[in-house]
Amino acid sequence: MSHIDSTVTRYLEVFNEPEADRRLVLIDALCTDDYAYTDPLAAVRGKAAFSDLVGVVQKQFPNVTFVAAGPAEAHHDVARFRWNAMAPGITEPLAVGFDVVTLADGRIRTVVGFLDKAPG
């Protein structure tokens, strides 16, 4: 597994972590202090705000698991990857996304997310 694929795996673990305190620990280890997240539905700055956003997503879509949909691609301090949001007992993803991240010192500084398929 490449360094960026490991980073992506850790990033998706944040979305899969139901406990807010544990999620914040994961975010703190993964993201820079000036972290910012933007997608078509939300824009937040800071680790606590991101953790809160993930908590809202989990409440809206309980038991959904976020998984990588293939390897990440990276150059310089930028990477992109696809992900799927999988619901229990369903073979098709509930949501499909494409995220672009910038890195600083091996940590995620920004995420810009796109939704290729949003939940109905």
Rounded average pLDDT: 96
What is the highest CATH level, the class? Alpha Beta
Q: What is the percentage of strand-forming residues?
A: 35-45%
Number of continuous helical runs: 3
Number of domains: 1
H and E string:
HHEEHEEEEE
Name given to the CATH architecture: Roll
CATH fold naming? Nuclear Transport Factor 2, Chain: A
Distance between the termini: 33 Å
Overview of this structure, please?
There is one protein chain. This protein has 3 helices and 7 strands; from the N terminus they run ααββαβββββ. The chain has 120 residues and is an alpha+beta fold. The protein has a single domain (3-117), classed as Nuclear Transport Factor 2, Chain: A (Roll), CATH 3.10.450. Strands 1, 2, 3, 4, 5, 6 and 7 form a 7-stranded mixed sheet that branches. Strand 1 and strand 2 (42-45) form a beta hairpin. Helix 1 (3-16) packs antiparallel against helix 2 (20-30) and helix 2 crosses helix 3. The protein is globular, with a radius of gyration of 13 Å. The termini are far apart.
How are the elements arranged and paired?
Blueprint: H1 3-16, H2 20-30, E1 31-39, E2 42-45, H3 47-60, E3 65-68, E4 73-75, E5 78-86, E6 95-104, E7 107-117
Parallel strand pairs: 1-7
Antiparallel strand pairs: 1-2, 3-5, 4-5, 5-6, 6-7
What features would you highlight for this structure?
7-stranded mixed sheet; 120 residues; 3 helices; Nuclear Transport Factor 2, Chain: A; alpha+beta
